[in-house]
Write a structure and sequence with these properties.
It is a single chain. The protein is of the alpha/beta class and 314 residues long. The chain has two domains: 135 residues, D-Maltodextrin-Binding Protein, domain 2; 143 residues, Periplasmic binding protein-like II (D-Maltodextrin-Binding Protein, domain 2, 3-Layer(aba) Sandwich). 32% of the residues lie in helices and 23% in strands. The chain contains eight helices and ten strands. The strands form two sheets. Strands 1, 2, 3, 4, 7, 8, 9 and 10 form an eight-stranded mixed β-sheet that branches. α2 packs across α7, α4 packs across α5 and α7 crosses α8. It is globular, with a radius of gyration of 22 Å.
Length: 314
């Protein structure tokens, strides 16, 4: 009888452990990450061996990486630049042997806006040569390596991107965290990261106080980070005329911890397979996030970061 009760206890414990939800860290409830997380849950719950639970994250990408390291969540939506910078800082805890990409998601463009009244210090390198931006002619894209030594303001997840860009390419930026409401009055360059068109960028350009800085991909191409950042462009109305501006973009990623024992990676592999197989259907679904259309296009073009990925099952 005792053996029977012990067996029942073991089986019950195993069942509880097996059904423990796999938490997916996303973003704020009004953001793209949260919406896409719920889309993934809706489309893939029946394809994964464990229940999926979508978690809202006020701290965004950086908080998700910390929660993943601390085993508070099993999967995390992150920005490719934030992930790359974290891998550089925590090489033993974040690398290809213990962390992998579940899915490559949509692009988020970097918008670097410079106030027309901006007066860089003499130590600000190429920042002092931006007079052409304020003329009538379309300025040429500017290399990152000429933009060293400035103060750049940002808020939310854009703070992380500013620090990552500065840290990965040695720009030496002083990054100031500000509230979004203070952007209009800023006398410093602003970095805003998001899938274009971004409403805040539109309103700042409409104020006629800022110029959108065109960024060249040349300083990134051929480096170890050329899959973390992608050549891109954005289109905004400037002086009542739709204007295309070259820039760079980061890619949103869904990542997860990778186990030494491959059998423990089954849930991640199932999730990776489900997202890969259903990205086109999610793009066509009228009830899912519009970002899935970008995911489907990137998948067709095989745009992905050069990092370890969970395998797609047959």
């Amino acid at each position: 009888m005792k053996k029977f009760l012990l067996l029942c206890t073991i089986l019950a414990s195993s069942s509880v452990a097996a059904s423990k939800p796999a938490v997916v860290g996303t973003g704020s409830s009004t953001g793209t990450y949260f919406a896409m997380g719920n889309d993934i849950k809706g489309w893939c719950s029946d394809e994964v061996e464990v229940p999926l639970e979508i978690s809202e994250s006020a701290g965004g990408s950086s908080q998700n990486i910390q929660d993943l390291l601390n085993k508070k969540i099993r999967f995390a939506m992150v920005q490719s630049d934030d992930f790359a910078f974290s891998r550089k800082q925590f090489k033993k805890r974040l690398n290809d042997s213990n962390t992998a990409v579940v899915a490559n998601l949509h692009l988020e463009q970097l918008h670097l806006l410079v106030p027309k009244s901006y007066k860089p210090s003499s130590k600000s390198g190429g920042w002092g040569n931006l007079k052409s931006l304020f003329g009538k002619s379309k300025p040429q894209p500017i290399n990152l390596d000429t933009l060293k030594g400035a103060e750049v303001s940002a808020w939310g997840g854009s703070i992380t991107s500013a620090k990552a860009l500065s840290g990965l390419f040695g720009l030496g930026w002083k990054v100031n965290a500000i509230e979004q409401a203070a952007a209009e009055a800023s006398n410093k360059p602003l970095l805003i990261v998001g899938s274009a068109p971004v409403s805040k960028v539109e309103s700042l350009l409409k104020s006629n106080r800022f110029v959108l800085l065109p960024l060249s991909y040349n300083a990134i191409e051929g480096t170890r980070y050329d899959s973390v950042y992608t050549k891109s462009s954005v289109a905004y109305s400037v002086n009542s005329q739709l204007t295309s501006t070259d820039t760079i973009a980061v890619q949103a990623l869904l990542i997860g911890k990778k186990s030494r024992k491959d059998s423990r990676n089954l849930a991640a592999q199932q999730l990776a397979t489900c997202i890969y197989n259903n990205s086109y259907d999610m793009a066509d679904d009228p009830d899912t996030s519009p970002a899935w259309s970008i995911v489907a296009d990137l998948q067709e073009e095989n745009v992905r970061v050069d990092m370890a990925h969970f395998k797609i099952l047959e």
